[in-house]
Amino acid sequence: MDQCIGRKTKKAKGDLNKGARFYQTVCANCHGFDGKEINFKDDKKPEYIGTVASENPWETLHKTRHGQPGQVMPALIALDTQDLVDIVAYAQTLPAK
Questions:
Q1: N or C: which end of the chain has fewer CB within 10 A?
Q2: Is the pTM of this model over 0.85?
């Protein structure tokens, strides 16, 4: 995982431009182009894809790769690991609040 995400910085080691292309054509369908379509918590303490990607990029990478059990979140395991890291890197640029 240290090859994909900085242990101390929590920054995904991905290409933002490549991640944006994947995110905007696949992920934005559910998460929204700004990442705020799905609030995982509530209005008082919102949690969006940008929040999770910044606070726990390892979880975001895992869910991007394997999907979210019991939800419609698809597994993108067919993509290369670097493509998934690129998506996480881009997601880290989305609003956290």
A1: C
A2: yes
